[in-house]
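During the second half of the funding period, the structural biology subgroup turned its attention to how the target accommodates small molecules. The most pressing case was S-adenosylmethionine, which had performed well in the primary screen but for which no bound structure existed. We therefore specified the complex as follows and requested a full 3D prediction, including the ligand pose.
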Amino acid sequence: MSVQATLSGVTAAGVPVVDGIPFARTGREELQGRVADLLADGEVDRARVALFADADDWWTEPAPPAEQLAQVPAARTLREAMDTLGMGRVGDYFAHRWSDPTHLAGLALLGRHWPGDAPVVDVACGIGTQLRELARRGVADLVGLDVVWSKLWLARRFVCPTARYVCADVTTAPDLQVTGPAYVTCHDAFYFFRDKPAAAAAMTRLAGLEGTVVVGHAHVADPHGAPLPPQDYARLLHATVLYDDEELTRSLLERRPPRPAPAEELVGSEAIALVAGDLRGPAPVDLGEPLEPLRPNPLYTDGRLHWPSERYAAEYGPRSAHLPDRWPDPLPADAARRRLLVDLPEQW
Ligand SMILES: C[S@@+](CC[C@H](N)C(=O)[O-])C[C@H]1O[C@@H](n2cnc3c(N)ncnc32)[C@H](O)[C@@H]1O
């Protein structure tokens, strides 16, 4: 299948493409067929709505009615689109990704093992937060892969329009047409994969012999998803460098390189990061400093920090010492590094 697909249509391999995003997710053959039929009848809007209704296997809420999903393309902002898609807690997570400690850990990891001019595949890229950072820092060859089509649609529309996107499971993805040794990254998602040996093998294959595989925020002690012990992650990925996720976040905030740790020392960590293959060098720029234009972190209203939900507060509150309860006046010199000021997408 060509991922340089036309905006909407069906590829020679029978994969439906809507708004430039192929839907090659396996286990969804009925939906694939239905979308292809709608496209054959010229019903692009209905095909898009059918794809908007699809979710990942961990999602527990029913899809909103078709009439509501049909309104998504008219949304003026990322949050409005996520509300209309009925994304609930996942919408909160993505809306505030720019200051959460897991995202900062991911930036520290990218900053220490920078792709340079290698093509990048972001596996389970969500709405493209990491791709946007890479694009804005000059990385040009970007592919985002995720099982949820609507997330890729949000990425393309609101977050990182310059990347190519393919909707597929990492273990059964079509040829992504990536040339040369690749930099394959997967942040805050590897622990979700049910068949981790197959996912690790697919990512290693995608990276190629001289490529790099970087897995960020893989749960160990955090029970969400299907976590593994550090040694098991390292063995599956052939990783040679490991980090505690908290250490990564701290290093970004403290403006220093992160310290790796042996797998045995990480058994009690909530989450870890792993690097395999070509370790590559540090980024030429400090990813701790977000790029202009910066806006006040929208978690602050009326001078106070307000978490978007109790669930979000329970997960990120205890790990977000960089965000004080009250908006500091005057702002500290490191306000941007601490994400009191954030580089939100233009149409956030
Ligand atoms: C917690 S989100 C992380 C998103 C993004 N990497 C980030 O850091 O913002 C996990 C993502 O994994 C995706 N996902 C889950 N299982 C997958 C699979 N088998 N193949 C590809 N993506 C998958 C979900 O749709 C979701 O977007």
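Two results from this model are relevant to the next phase. The CA atoms of residues 62 and 152 lie 19 Å apart. The chain has two domains: 12-88, 89-348.
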